[in-house]
Each structure stands twice: as C-alpha cells, then as structure tokens.
Write the structure tokens for this entry.
Amino acid sequence: MEQERSGTIGIVVVAAGRGERAGASVEGPKQYRRIGGKPVIWHTLKRFLEWPKSGPVVVVIHPEDHGLLEAAISDLACSDSLVVVEGGATRQASVLNGLRALHDRGIQHVMIQDGVRPFVDASLLERIAAELETGKPAVLPAIPVSDTIKRGDTSGVVTATVPRTDLYAAQTPQSFHYETILAAHERAANEQAVDFTDDASIAEWADIPVQLVAGSIDNVKLTVKRDIAMADEKLKASALPDVRTGNGYDVHQLEPGDGVTLCGIFIPHDQKLKGHSDADVALHALTDALLATCGAGDIGDHFPPSDMQWKGAPSRIFLEHAARVVRGAGGTIMNADISLIAEEPKIGPHRQAMREKLAEILDISLDRCSVKATTNEKIGFVGRGEGIAAIATATVAFRGAD
C-alpha cells in the first residue's frame, strides 16, 4: 500500500528506457542490472527515499517491467511509498506521465531524475533545493566541460574547435516549479514538439529561465556496458572495510608492594607497578594501539601524567576513552591482542579473567580478545625482575570510502 511522505519536493525517476547501448543482459534493461550487488534502480531510488525533503516519489517504467521493478526493490526500505506509472513512447512522454501522477499531491517543486544515475548524493540535492527555495523556476545541475570540443562534418573531418568557455554538461535531477514545468510539458505535447533531449530544453523552449547549479562529477549516467562495469567496481570497492592495525608498547617499573593490576585484574604479589595511574601496563599499551588506528595520538595526549586527576586512576578509563574515540571515527573493534613480558607474577592462572575483562571493557566478544605472556629469559631489566612490559595490537575496521 502506498504511504504518504512528508517531504515537499516531488520526485520523478524516469526508468522506462530499453538501454540498447548497454547491450543485452539476462537481468533486463540497464536500470535493472546489478552494481554492488543491487540493481541500478535500487541505488537511485534509495538516494531519494532517504532524503528528508523528498515528497511523493514516482517511478516511471516500461509497461513490460512491472515484475522487474518489483523484484529490484523488494528489500528497499520505504519502497511501499513509491508511485509506479507506465512510460510512453519517448522519454519526454514518460516524464509527462510522471508529472501528471503528481497532480493534487500538494507539492510545489519537482525533481526529474534519470533512473540510471545511481550516484546522486544528498549534497547535490540540497544545492538544488536551496535554489528552488529562492524562487527559481528551473534549476539545472551541470559541470563545466573540460575536454576540448570539436565540430565535424558528415565525412568525419573537423570543421571547427568549439570554445568551451561557458559550456556545461547537463545532469539530473533537473528541477522545477511543478506547475510551471507541467504546463510546459503539456504545451510541448499538444504542439507535438518532441525534439528535446532533456527537461531543461523544454523549459528553455517555453522561455522559462534555467539556473545553473554545480553538479557532481560522481553523478554519472550509466549508458554503455563499460559504465555499468565501472559502477559495479566502485561500489564493491566502497563496500570493502578499511581495516587498520595499531600497535602499542608500554613498560613500568616494579617496586615493593602487594600486587599488580594487569588487564584490569589485580594479581597479589610482593611487588607493585610504579606509575601515575594504577600502572596497568597492558591496558596502557592497548589504549595506544587503539588510538593509533585512527591517528588520534597516544595515551599521554589524552591523559597527561602532569594532570593530577588521573593520579591512581583505573586504566580502564583510558581504554574506554580510546574505544569511544575509535567508534566515533566510524571504527569497529575487531581484535585486541596483548603480549605481557614478565618474570613474575605468573600470568597463566589469570589469563582467562584478563580476556573476559578486555571483552567487557571494549564491549566485544571474548573470541576477539587475546592475552599471552612470556618471560625475557633473565635478559635485561625485565629479565632481572625490575619491571613488566606489554606489547598490544588492535585491529579496527572502518567504513569503506563513500
């Protein structure tokens, strides 16, 4: 059942073409070909369904494509709010059918989008909407032409170089005051003026001023088979996680005491670790490792030893902070690994409790937490029992590029 949308800008997504230039495919016309695991039209519609200013969204399809569309958007959130209409013999006729479907739906503006431009983004939509809100009757997203343009004759001989100053490549969504563009389309249909290649051309023909707005180089139209292959690769690459590894090292001196805290677990011992906080060398190393995955400095930057508020503080505070920093940067903690180097106390009896404490502090599963221990074979200050060292490695997955 169609559901009402609260946005104020009507959307017409034109997807009625056959896409001959893209070649034949068992998936159907190019708007139903899969890129990044989903049909092209799925990606295009998703951009508008997620945009808060979208009002009713009309998708114009070929009369034979109802089954293809239904299958393409079966798992698309809010797809039950779509208005589906059939297209005409030409793109121009299909757009007019889409515009008519928005009649009496309480909208003031409309955006007309090619169904095979799946990379339109919210920032472009906002730029267009801002111009519409100033009262512009027509807004055209476009990018300046950067290639040298040649004019040739029918035999393929260059006749002129066209100055590219003030030349722009038009994109969609081409956007308008709704009643104004509807009237222009109706007039063009009545007068059988059908040689227009886009909706801005109809506006120009009807003496409607068209305002240029900066387009997006990513907002490409998928026309030929190679375009679809490149779009597929782009989406697959962006879906891959950005996996980063950070390392941390810390060491603290031992002095007479009643026990040491390692990985948040207190172990009775005849010595303690000397430090400004509770001197948990393991959590300090892991804190540095996590901060390293997003270039956020080290523990001393966030908790300087000169600050007395951290005197005797439990080191889980530092690790919890590092985890928040990582997650705030879009990271997911995948693994935490700590190697403790100490002659005493024995780590083995406490290792499981240490792993459980790490899992609790980081809010990750136990199988993602590892604690190991070794001695220094009586070599160096650790080997002489003068201190305990820790090496930590953190693995964090960040979202892929948008």
Notes: The mean pLDDT is 93. The radius of gyration is 31 Å. Residues 225-239 form the longest helix (15 residues).
